Amino acid sequence: MLSERRLEVLRAIVQDYVGTEEPVGSKALTERHKLGVSPATVRNDMAVLEEEGFIAQPHTSAGRIPTDKGYRLFVDKLAGVKPLSSPERRAIQNFLDGAVDLDDVVARTVRLLAQLTRQVAVVQYPSLTRSTVRHVELLSLAPARLMLVLITDTGRVEQRHVDCPAPFGETSLADLRARLNSRVVGRRFTDVPQLVQDLPESFEPDDRGTVSTVLSTLLETLVEETEERLMIGGTANLTRFGHDFPLTIRPVLEALEEQVVLLKLLGEVKDSGMTVRIGHENAYEGLNSTSVVAVGYGSGDEAVAKLGVVGPTRMDYPGTMGAVRAVARYVGQILAES
């Protein structure tokens, strides 16, 4: 375990390197920070930090920079994330409040996160497997053609056309709509198949074929839409950090194009707390020079998806974590009110 003083020296090195982009020397540290010890003691502390792998010396400089291990300790020992200012919080609320539907919420969230953190923003759509049914609407388009509209508690809307085996009257349609909603509203999508399996038997024999067709379409929709979807934005922000990527930015850009990689980066939704993966903690080699900050969001206490940012390991961790957490909270409120 590092002493509190050496932790303080490490914090100062991380803060200075993130702020200046320059390797940090002992003289600069004692001038900029009230460490309460002599430059010689700071040099000694830096030697110990280097020996233990928390900082390293770039070839061309007398100063030191944090390693992945150093950033990890810095993040683990953070007393708290940096709170956003009142104007920042108001700006988030005003920007997200104007959203008209779920796609707009996700698109605005991506733009907002990218602007606030100046990193690459990644937002996962709420998964249907973790959603509940808000309403099922059935509309008649023709005597034997219906439209099924499925609305989730997270604001997702799915529409399907249903070709019926026989004409289906308005009275039967209203009856099916009412009975279907009484069984599935407020229930998890994963529970729906079991809840509706005996529904056709409760209808007149002439209507059972159409009821079965409607239910098949509903269940197909649930299966189709379990696929995870992501939106990404702010990739151009990476070009500002060219010197933070040792060889080239290309592997990072290639990794960001792989949806499976990004979903793994964000992590399991059930781990809804803040996740910070630094450098080589990212399993994908192309992202070994980046850090990922992600958190779950949802319409209640439970997360339905994740959002986060990808940037160079030299990032403002307290500020980024604060921004990601604040945006997730606002998105959750919007979903709860939608």
Question: What is the element layout, followed by pairings?
Answer:
Layout: H1 4-20, H2 26-32, H3 39-51, E1 55-56, E2 65-66, H4 68-76, H5 86-97, H6 102-117, E3 120-124, E4 133-142, E5 145-152, E6 157-163, H7 170-184, H8 192-196, H9 205-224, E7 230-233, H10 250-256, H11 259-266, E8 275-278, E9 290-297, E10 305-312, H12 317-337
Antiparallel strand pairs: 1-2, 3-7, 3-10, 4-5, 5-6, 8-9, 9-10
How is this structure best described in words?
This protein is of the alpha+beta class and 338 residues long. It is built from 12 helices and 10 strands. The protein has helices spanning 4-20, 26-32, 39-51, 68-76, 86-97, 102-117, 170-184, 192-196, 205-224, 250-256, 259-266, 317-337; strands spanning 55-56, 65-66, 120-124, 133-142, 145-152, 157-163, 230-233, 275-278, 290-297, 305-312. The strands form 3 sheets. Strands 7-3-10-9-8 form a 5-stranded antiparallel sheet, sandwiched between helices. β4 (133-142) and β5 form a beta hairpin.
Q: Using the alpha-carbon principal axes, give the shape.
A: elongated
Q: Count of DSSP helices?
A: 12
| Share in β-strands | 15-25%
**What structural class is derived from the secondary structure elements?**
alpha+beta
Strand order of the largest sheet: 7-3-10-9-8
Rg on CA atoms, Å: 26 Å
Uncertain segments of ≥5 residues (pLDDT<50)? Answer: none
Helix-residue proportion: 40-55%
Distance between the amino and carboxyl termini: 48 Å
Q: Please provide the count of β strands.
A: 10
Order of helices and strands: HHHEEHHHEEEEHHHEHHEEEH
Let me know the average pLDDT: 87
- Tell me about the largest β-sheet: 5 strands, antiparallel
